[in-house]
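Researcher: Please predict.
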Amino acid sequence: MLKLAAMVYIIAGSMLAGSCVIAALVLGRVDALSISLAAALGALLALPVAWLIAAKLNKAMRPA
Protein backbone atom coordinates (compact mmCIF):
# COMPACT_ATOMS: atom_id res chain seq x y z
CA MET A 1 0.00 0.00 0.00
CA LEU A 2 3.00 2.29 0.42
CA LYS A 3 3.51 2.48 -3.34
CA LEU A 4 -0.13 3.40 -3.84
CA ALA A 5 0.07 6.04 -1.11
CA ALA A 6 3.18 7.50 -2.74
CA MET A 7 1.41 7.79 -6.08
CA VAL A 8 -1.61 9.42 -4.46
CA TYR A 9 0.70 11.77 -2.53
CA ILE A 10 2.19 13.07 -5.78
CA ILE A 11 -1.25 14.32 -6.77
CA ALA A 12 -2.61 15.27 -3.34
CA GLY A 13 0.60 16.97 -2.25
CA SER A 14 0.81 19.27 -5.21
CA MET A 15 -2.91 20.02 -5.04
CA LEU A 16 -2.95 20.87 -1.34
CA ALA A 17 0.34 22.78 -1.47
CA GLY A 18 -0.93 24.84 -4.38
CA SER A 19 -4.24 25.47 -2.66
CA CYS A 20 -2.49 26.68 0.50
CA VAL A 21 -0.23 28.98 -1.53
CA ILE A 22 -3.24 30.45 -3.32
CA ALA A 23 -4.99 30.93 0.03
CA ALA A 24 -1.92 32.74 1.39
CA LEU A 25 -1.81 35.01 -1.67
CA VAL A 26 -5.52 35.80 -1.41
CA LEU A 27 -4.99 36.77 2.22
CA GLY A 28 -2.35 39.26 1.10
CA ARG A 29 0.67 37.31 2.36
CA VAL A 30 3.01 37.90 -0.57
CA ASP A 31 6.37 37.54 1.20
CA ALA A 32 8.56 34.52 0.44
CA LEU A 33 8.38 33.12 3.97
CA SER A 34 4.57 33.02 4.04
CA ILE A 35 4.40 31.38 0.63
CA SER A 36 7.03 28.80 1.59
CA LEU A 37 5.27 28.02 4.86
CA ALA A 38 1.95 27.64 3.08
CA ALA A 39 3.48 25.22 0.57
CA ALA A 40 5.14 23.21 3.34
CA LEU A 41 1.90 23.11 5.34
CA GLY A 42 0.00 21.83 2.31
CA ALA A 43 2.61 19.17 1.65
CA LEU A 44 2.46 18.01 5.27
CA LEU A 45 -1.34 17.96 5.27
CA ALA A 46 -1.26 15.78 2.19
CA LEU A 47 0.53 12.92 3.96
CA PRO A 48 -2.45 11.65 6.00
CA VAL A 49 -4.84 12.52 3.19
CA ALA A 50 -2.85 10.39 0.74
CA TRP A 51 -2.69 7.54 3.25
CA LEU A 52 -6.47 7.59 3.79
CA ILE A 53 -7.21 7.72 0.06
CA ALA A 54 -4.75 4.89 -0.61
CA ALA A 55 -6.37 2.78 2.11
CA LYS A 56 -9.81 3.28 0.58
CA LEU A 57 -8.49 2.51 -2.91
CA ASN A 58 -6.70 -0.59 -1.64
CA LYS A 59 -9.87 -1.79 0.07
CA ALA A 60 -11.91 -1.21 -3.09
CA MET A 61 -9.41 -3.08 -5.26
CA ARG A 62 -8.97 -5.99 -2.84
CA PRO A 63 -12.16 -6.63 -0.90
CA ALA A 64 -11.65 -8.78 2.18
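Model: The chain has one domain: 2-59.
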